[in-house]
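Handout, section B. The chain below has 388 residues.
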Amino acid sequence: MPEPPIYFDHAATTRLDPRVLDAMRPYLGDVYGNPSSIYRLAREARSAVDAARDTVAETLDARSTEIAFTGSGSEADNLALKGVAFAHLGRGGQIITSQIEHHAVLHTTEFLEKLGFRVTYLPVDQTGLVDPDSVGRAIQGDTILVSIMGANNEIGTIEPIEEIARIAHARGVPLHVDAVQAAGALDLSVDGLGADLLSLSGHKFYGPKGVGVLYVRRGTVCWPLIHGGGQERGRRAGTENVAGIVGFAHALRLAQAERDSRYRHLAGLRDRLIDGVLSAIPGARLTGHPARRLPNNASFCLEGVSGESLLLSLDQHGIMASTGSACTSGSLEPSHVLLALGLSPRLAAGSLRISLGKDNTETEVKRFLDLLPNLVARLRRIDSADCV
């Protein structure tokens, strides 16, 4: 009998927690009213949305009026950047971000550059850290926003958000934090982080796909992207995804309640995985910060190996992993994140990202570590033979 599959790609998406599905079920069936209507069925849906908003706000140490539900983390990022920028249309201004942001941020800033906004892309060090002082040096008199991710989705590096926030706020500049990968692993108190805008995505922490959140601090001007009805206090028109919103809030509440135990479990598996790969495979290199990293992230570059070939080999053995961001897995270009660390395109092509989940086990990590060295050696022999 074949061994059961192993899922090691939780940074791409997570399985819906059965407890979250149970919370969603009434709103996938009997409670189907439009929250904007006034009869009982609609009021039940509105009550569920309001309760979910309160739960998210409590988790973020925010006000319920500061929570806007969106269709995804990417939409939340777009709303944050474009919403602030559009409020400055005709006046222009500078936006500061980093070279290793998710493409939901980078492609948005590229679009805004076409509208006349200036964008400064800060470099990172070889571990992926943004220097907070570089943010201070980059701020100018017309800077309208700083956008730095809480933790990188490919290499797991956790950025010094609190220090960056202090520097930006001392100059009167708001801070947006893409916290999509940080949810469930780090404290998301918006006051503790110093975030004025913060993006989340439900499917990254065992919630449903197709629902996200943008926190907008009171007093932060952020124009809507989607116009129509008056939903989300005018920030995002469209009939609410009631079941998704309920699931998002329930998943976030569970992630917060179980954060410490999940962190200990994941960090233990991660450290065993990192030690095992680095000790067993010559030419393996850990990417990202060795200490300031997400508890579930183990990312490597393996010299002389094609990341895509390695993933296909792992898949044949029932192991699902990634070379980096799932959003760019169809691209043949080296990861922009790894290139920003100073890695060569050839070395970056041999990337492997293992992102663990709360249900992964020691047995699964051992099976992976028993298998990987032989797969890498075989692929290196094939590559060497092709080059003869």
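Note. The first strand starts at residue 6 and ends at 7. Compare this with the example in section A.
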